[in-house]
Write a structure and sequence with these properties.
Layout: E1 3-8, E2 14-18, E3 39-42, H1 52-59, H2 72-86, H3 92-102, H4 107-113, H5 115-119
Antiparallel strand pairs: 1-2, 1-3
Length: 120
């Protein structure tokens, strides 16, 4: 049974009310504090689901990629975002490289210090 959030327009107190879907909009809602029917429904934060194609397209937006060549921290941030958007753990090597980028180490230095990663 879903819970709906309301605010009383008379006493200004917020309250929640659990009711069945088929009862919503049919049964009058009364404030649980003062009993008044002068209430408004409060809509909390909502989530919008995006499909993978839209998320990947947003990541490829040129504005999001503007500084990645010159700023290792920006590249690391973009790579962390990519990992979270994909929703998979990319492994310890990925974490090692991104951690180094986030600390400001250049990609060239990382390649020199971790030559085995380039072969894989």
């Amino acid at each position: 049974m879903p819970t709906y959030r309301y605010r009383c327009l008379s006493c200004k107190m917020p309250f929640e009310l659990a009711m069945r879907y088929q009862d919503y909009g049919v049964i009058p809602v009364k404030c649980t504090h003062c009993g008044n029917e002068n209430v408004e429904r409060r809509i909390e934060r909502i989530r919008v689901l995006k499909d993978d194609a839209v998320r990947l397209q947003n990541m490829a937006d040129p504005q999001n990629l503007a500084n990645i060549e010159d700023d290792p921290r920006a590249l690391g941030k973009m790579m962390r975002n990519m990992e979270s958007q994909i929703g998979e753990n990319m492994g310890s090597e990925f974490d090692e490289v991104v951690g180094r980028l986030e600390s400001g180490q250049s990609a060239q230095n990382i390649e020199r210090e971790l030559p085995d990663l380039a072969e894989e």
